[in-house]
Specification:
A: mainly alpha, disordered C terminus, B: alpha/beta, six-stranded parallel β-sheet, 18 helices
């Protein structure tokens, strides 16, 4: 800890110490609730495992394109970076990220639906084949 | 007020994403799952956009418009191109995470060192490493799957390959840890770009030695990384929706990777560092055994007289685009009272579930698609097993020959059928680079040629009156 803070001005060191001691928000870097984020991560991973294990093996390809579209939730971060009051270079990075995410969202959901439409209900298929 | 509504929207978004995946458990409800996913995503985008910190609306509208313009055509690719489209979208996901991480890093650097807390720097380092290695790795995978000429299809190996890769990753990790500990050190300005460069090159080098048969596993692992990079972004931005959605994706990729690895009896490390199919190719070239060939007429006759026909599709079916002809054949057989089933090996093809989608596209009812574990008990009752472009997944050597690279891999018991027809383009061995014992059995007959035209010929025997 002390080594890490070496070379910083004393005010910042104090601020850091106060931050660590109280967990209160200091200006610039608000105290993040690391632990609740970790909780959310661990619990959602378990929910994910529980839910995905029940996914029909027939649908593993559409599953992958669907989760692809869902993980394009990175769009949230991209919007905040591209649309914020930031230097131009930062916003350019955000805009490219936004483009990539939206591409994933649009193509991911559309192709998933397109594939799922092809999985015919067996009874309907039998009717069509005039068995 | 807005902040509370935004959080509420994020909670609802999470619920919708979980429901979306839960409805994928059955083809009947799966499309409802897509609708839920779309709703969750639209909600998340709107809730983010209305935040007061977002002021440059044109900067959002234009990328969204471009993304739609590229995304729509990407969703219309032929079903055979789905594996490379999937790999490409992993690349985009990784790129987005990497860029947002990079942007946030430089933003916080410019706003003052007090922003660079250990937690944030750690999360950013994780985000950019995962994001950028997923980006280049998935691009490589997509290139291999697409068959781009300047990307080698066969595994590329060179001396000290694994050592080099490990060194790259370790260097990136060490630099990352150093950056976390000393975020404001004078060398930090060089360390961060160095981490980016290392992650980008690691992605390329990781995929170069991987062959086509390992693509299902590799795509699943990259899927997982793309999800985890979104999770890391959630940690960076203090955004729980990113964490939950990313974790769902990460879990999905993880489970698919495990299923794929089990289906090949291999470990993650073996897939990533094993360079499958390289070493063995030379060893197998020695002996030459004789194939027995069968005529189209003979095959048609045997198929017609069967009561249970099991079709085993493999990547060769996808290459030959034979799925529609196969369905025509199955229709002809069913008309004659023959029961036709399809035996689906988990790693057949180039991505999880690849065969199912191709056959569904050809209007094969999904109840006819049977998983390996369920069909194997029926194989002794199977009169004719028709192997279409599958090779290693039906090679009985996996059961007993410890010297083959596929030893221990669960296979479809095609050799237990009363008669086997195998359609094969040429006499070359499969991706694992080994001969297939199945082809040399007494009851196996080969039909050499392009799968689509061979099956087309067989169908003609039934429909064109060539058959008595």
């Amino acid at each position: 800890m002390s080594r890490a803070l070496e070379g910083m001005d004393p005010a910042a060191v104090l601020q850091e110490a106060a931050h660590a001691a109280t967990g209160a928000a200091t200006h610039g870097a608000p105290a993040l609730d690391y632990w609740s984020m970790l909780f959310v991560f661990v619990l959602s991973t378990f929910i994910g495992i529980g839910v995905i294990r029940r996914v029909s093996r027939l649908l593993h390809t559409p599953l992958m394109s669907l989760t692809n579209a869902i993980s394009a939730i990175a769009v949230v971060g991209a919007i905040l970076v591209a649309g914020g009051e930031f230097p131009l270079a930062i916003r350019v990075l955000g805009a490219i990220a936004l483009f990539a995410s939206v591409t994933n969202i649009v193509s991911g959901f559309l192709i998933t639906d397109r594939m799922l439409k092809m999985f015919k209900d067996p009874n309907a298929a039998k009717g069509a084949a005039k068995k | 007020m807005i902040a509370a509504l935004v959080q509420l929207a994020y909670v609802v978004g999470t619920v919708l994403f979980v429901l979306s995946l839960a409805w994928m458990n059955d083809p009947k409800t799966a499309r409802k799952g897509v609708a839920a996913g779309v709703a969750g995503m639209v909600l998340a985008i709107l809730a983010t956009w209305v935040q007061p910190s977002v002021v440059h609306h044109l900067w959002i509208i234009i990328p969204i418009a471009l993304g739609v313009a590229v995304g729509v055509p990407l969703s219309r690719v032929p079903i055979t191109a789905v594996p490379q489209r999937t790999a490409l979208s992993h690349a985009f996901g990784g790129l987005a995470a990497g860029l947002v991480g990079t942007a946030k890093y430089y933003l916080w650097v410019s706003e003052g060192p007090e922003n660079l807390t250990k937690f944030r720097v750690g999360a950013i380092v994780l985000e950019v490493i995962l994001g950028f290695l997923t980006f280049t790795g998935s691009l490589m995978a997509a290139g291999k799957l697409q068959g781009l000429r300047w990307i080698p299809q066969r595994p590329v190996t060179y001396p000290l390959q694994n050592a080099t890769n490990l060194l790259l990753l370790t260097t990136a990790a060490v630099l990352g840890v150093a950056l976390v500990l000393h975020p404001t050190a004078p060398w930090a300005a060089y360390a961060f770009p160095a981490i980016l460069a290392l992650a980008l090159s690691f992605g390329v080098l990781l995929i170069i030695p991987i062959g086509g048969a390992d693509m299902p596993t590799v795509i699943s692992i990259l899927n997982s990384y793309a999800g985890l990079s979104a999770v890391a972004m959630g940690f960076v931005l203090d955004n729980k929706l990113l964490i939950t959605a990313g974790a769902l994706d990460g879990a999905s990729g993880l489970i698919l990777s495990i299923i794929m690895c089990r289906a090949m009896n291999r470990s993650f490390t073996n897939v990533l560092f094993g360079a499958f199919g390289q070493v063995q190719a030379a060893a197998a070239a020695g002996e030459q055994k004789a194939y027995k060939e069968e005529t189209i007429e003979g095959a048609a006759q045997a198929l017609e007289q069967a009561s249970l026909v099991v079709i085993v599709p493999g990547y060769g079916m996808a290459v030959a685009q034979a799925q529609h002809k196969i369905r025509e054949l199955a229709d002809q057989l069913k008309k004659r009272g023959v029961v036709v089933k399809y035996a689906i090996h988990p790693v057949a093809g180039r991505m999880p579930g690849h065969m199912n989608v191709l056959l569904a596209e050809a209007d094969v009812p999904y109840t006819d698609l049977v998983e390996m574990d369920d069909i194997n008990s029926d194989m002794p009752q199977c009169d004719v097993c028709l192997v279409v472009g599958a090779n290693d997944v039906v090679n009985p050597a996996a059961r007993h020959d410890k010297s083959t690279p596929i030893y221990g891999m669960p296979i479809i018991d095609a050799d237990k059928a009363r008669m086997v027809f195998a359609i094969k383009r040429g006499k070359a061995p499969g991706f694992a680079g080994i001969d297939n014992e199945l082809y040399f059995q007494d009851k196996t007959f080969m039909l050499f040629g392009d799968a689509k035209s061979v099956i087309g010929e067989v169908v003609k025997q039934f429909s064109g009156g060539g058959m008595h």
